[in-house]
């Protein structure tokens, strides 16, 4: 398996560039649980915003983008949010299984964008390469997990830039998308505004702990510091319960472990269709202090747990503040 992945990445590097800089494919962001707010050294582009052609160093090498992208296709989590937040409506996108092509929170965030013009190119984990090619893109965005299986094929269709992926890396990945689009200044301003707002929202918790939980079917999970939501809480210096200070994205809870979801404040998401999950009716859930006193807040499941990007971060901050 590892050898197969190595071969695929090697093919992708060749398709992206014949002179990829040494170490470009193996440089890594900070360890999981620490949300990188800048690109790894040497990544991105040295070209000024708006200047093309440009070379973009990313997580699978170097890609030359000959002109300002006009027909962008996004494959992986967070990338639709990212390009829309930078003022670009892609021609194609994948979608999460069982979810809409354009999440409701993005439709609300970008009412003036022509979101109906975006074509589906399959599921995030199973993109339709023929559909991608039919759109004649001039830029494709994918993360490292997707690049392992279809990176070389995508690079054969159009210039392809690989972001790291996973929610905790959303700020770094937005900057890499911006480097490909020639909109780095805009991305930096956007991120700084969100970080400033996170600090203001965090101050409102006055040292109280915040618990984050998601209920989906027969699974109940607490969210750690190594997650999209965890990174936003960390940016606001919001304290987490001791059981939620782990650096993975999330951990499963059995019904008997629901007390680990306790915190001074509790924010929870429920997957569509899981409203009747047994966990929500358990006396251990209804007995949690925040649930019992009516202060637990149900949040936007798509923005908090299924996506990552500036618009999702804004939803999280607004619901934390509210």
From TrEMBL:
One of its GO terms (biological process) is iron coordination entity transport. Gene3D superfamilies: Nitrogenase molybdenum iron protein domain (3.40.50.1980). This is Iron complex transport system substrate-binding protein. Residues 71-322 form the Fe/B12 periplasmic-binding domain. Keywords: Signal, Transport. The keyword Nucleotide-binding does not apply. Residues 1-20 form the signal peptide. GO terms for cellular component: outer membrane-bounded periplasmic space. Belongs to the bacterial solute-binding protein 8 family. It comes from the Bacteria. InterPro entries: ABC_transptr_periplasmic_BD, Bact_iron-sidero_bind. PANTHER family: IRON III DICITRATE-BINDING PERIPLASMIC PROTEIN (PTHR30532), IRON(III) DICITRATE-BINDING PERIPLASMIC PROTEIN (PTHR30532:SF25). It is found in: Cell envelope.
